[in-house]
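Table S2 (continued). Query chain:
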Amino acid sequence: MPENMMTRIISGACLVVIAIVCNYYGGPLLLSVLLGCSLIGLFEFYRATGLLAEKKIINPVTLPGYLCAVAYYVFLYFHKDTEHMLFIIVTAIILTMLVYVFTFPKYKAAEVAYCVFGFIYVPVMLSFIFRVRELENGIYTVWLIYVASWVCDTFAYMVGMAIGKHKLCPRLSPKKSIEGAIGGIAGAVLVGFLFDLLLLRDAMPGVTIGVLIVCAVGAIVSQTGDLAASAIKRNHEIKDYGNLIPGHGGILDRFDSVIFTAPMIYFLLVFIVHGGF
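Corresponding output:
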């Protein structure tokens, strides 16, 4: 086995162990780890989009993003209602615009837009892992996020390698195939069914169809998130967002699909499985 593949497998196994521990215990532990991932991911995004120089971690226009990320997670722990979350998001926009105004013309409008988008794209969307965990029976349903993202990614890779012939998005990811994408969705649904059969039916009887829908839609969204991250990287001519995780790249390279999947899984669970707000 090639050394880089072994490194990737070991790193992936470590991530799985961390995910199991954090999602099992939930609460402050999960929220703290998500905040750490969010801050690192936000840094990776700001650097990738050219907002930060090579050796800089922060500058005036990115500062509101970091501060509001911390505030968002603190508020999320104590107040889970929509109003508090919207308050932090609006505050992030206003603070970033204040920096834009009082440092003008140092930053351009497009850079300011990247700052606000990065805050929503990474900390806010990633926080839905915690939101799913906090739902009723969230100790079980939180794993559907990883079924719809990491399991989907694994099946898509295996099916694509075996029978993939038709390119999905050749300009973004030449190795991804339509067959692989379909295989990823089918794999997520299959594992979701087994998960429901083995674990959910006792705790949450009668939700099998809902779980299958959640896994199928989540798998589609996860592949969109993966391709979206690839598009951003290609726009800025970089291969990886970082090198924090050996064999995988940065936080955003490993969680690009999870970032998209977590919010969708949350809303699907609320509307389909839990019967609405």
